[in-house]
């Protein structure tokens, strides 16, 4: 009975995927009016999370080309194991339209796309490093005994400490996950507080139309930020 | 595993009496239990987290007063909790109130606090869901931001349910993940600072050995008096809790060979004090494991799945640290409309991705 249930679901997903593929084709051909004009300026910073086992550089470069064609200016490429980081030079060499993102870069319109490469070590481990930076300040302040039960650090101090250890880039507006499941796979927690997270499926079956649809959906979202 | 308990599911939202209604309830309950047995053939999540989005929109949609949306949301929550615990899901976390929510209109914040206080008191009643399923309730967040009556009620619920062990309900209130991370870093700093002071105290003691220029026996006696006088520090040293971090190997061996050091090394006090002066320069290192143990959510394992209603696809500063390998699911329904079908679909999605996410978790 359980197996029957899951076979039924697989069949449903198969049908949904066919419908999505058709829709994606129509979007990429510009046949669906709704997706013709994207307010791409709303997307200041895009993060792409890719399952490490699927990190084929040819697919990544093609994806970057699509993003450049759509006018996306700042992209962070993330995979857990750091395979993209190791291929950084190769990707920058093969993809002409990008430069490496520098930590102090402000998100301005630039002729070339800026590319950031991140991995698991930029997440929790960076927080541990930042904690040690704050700890040194705490010890040096000398008035540790007066802090019992009170708040010692603010969130902005944490953010500054993360910056000093190289773990606090811009917060992405949108995070696209290319992998088997909708899961951010350890993308630096401090940076995705209000980031929209969308699942795109495996990288090898990526589609241009699906990318447009995902960005379009993002541009239609309105956030209250808790209010 | 399906827990068989006296069945009260459905009563939270059912109104009206009648034999037909009871018969219908029995049939649906029976079918639900059958469905749960089928689902339980596959893996069931240990921990589910919920972002309850859409209460205000629901109230607007149904032309209700604003506060009524939250009340309807509470009923939906209670039904969902019953389904979860019946399915054998041991941990459920809910995002009840964010620190950002304090920015809402004061009357709305107050009505939410009043609702929370009312529901906390209801949890303490004998026939509540907490008693029915043996749930331990934990309130997670910066509780000092809450008003005194709400904080006191939360602490009372935690105390009364502390011995329950069948399941756990974690209610995130006055919570954001960024606040949680900062709090954990603060806790780590305070802990490491205590270690640092203890080891510095050792260094000061050894310097006294050198500077005292007394007969060894007298020096030993004086140091032992000093050691016993400083009760907290000496307890730490005796129990080996003072300097157990990696950079402090010298300190550990010193603490475990106290008598040997005092008698044999006191004569080499020049060497020892030099060594300990060097130690004094070293500061204990905060590691990831230190931060993780100071997280508010350290009382539970990481969630397997996070469900946000209303189709929204962001985490809104909720469990950012704990969701590295957590599947995210966003059904379109508003929170008060969330029910059994969304939960069943979520479980099925979890079962489809389970082997992949388990593999990812092992890689960490």
Automatic annotation (TrEMBL), chain A:
Gene3D superfamilies membership: Decaprenyl diphosphate synthase-like
UniProt keyword terms in alphabetical order: Endoplasmic reticulum, Magnesium, Membrane, Signal, Transferase, Transmembrane, Transmembrane helix
Signal sequence bounds: 1-21
Pathway it works in: Protein modification; protein glycosylation
EC number(s) reported in the record: 2.5.1.87
Main location class: endoplasmic reticulum
Subcellular location(s) of the protein: Endoplasmic reticulum membrane
Keyword Mitochondrion found: no
GO molecular function: ditrans,polycis-polyprenyl diphosphate synthase [(2E,6E)-farnesyl diphosphate specific] activity
Family matches, as InterPro entries: Nus1/NgBR (IPR038887), UPP_synth-like_sf (IPR036424)
Cofactor(s) named in the record: Mg(2+)
Catalytic EC class: transferase
Source organism, top-level taxon: Eukaryota
Cellular component terms (Gene Ontology): dehydrodolichyl diphosphate synthase complex; endoplasmic reticulum membrane
Catalytic activity from the UniProt record: n isopentenyl diphosphate + (2E,6E)-farnesyl diphosphate = a di-trans,poly-cis-polyprenyl diphosphate + n diphosphate
Family statement: Belongs to the UPP synthase family.
Protein name: ditrans,polycis-polyprenyl diphosphate synthase [(2E,6E)-farnesyldiphosphate specific]
Lineage: Eukaryota, Viridiplantae, Streptophyta, Embryophyta, Tracheophyta
TrEMBL record, chain B:
Amino-acid biosynthesis in keyword set: no
Biological process according to GO: polyprenol biosynthetic process
Keywords: Transferase
Transferase listed as a keyword: yes
Any Pfam family: Prenyltransf
Family matches, as InterPro entries: UPP_synth-like, UPP_synth-like_sf
GO molecular function: ditrans,polycis-polyprenyl diphosphate synthase [(2E,6E)-farnesyl diphosphate specific] activity
EC number: 2.5.1.-
Cellular component aspect of the GO annotation: endoplasmic reticulum
Family (UniProt): Belongs to the UPP synthase family.
PANTHER family: DEHYDRODOLICHYL DIPHOSPHATE SYNTHASE COMPLEX SUBUNIT DHDDS, DEHYDRODOLICHYL DIPHOSPHATE SYNTHASE FAMILY MEMBER
The protein's name in its UniProt record: Alkyl transferase
Species lineage: Eukaryota, Viridiplantae, Streptophyta, Embryophyta, Tracheophyta
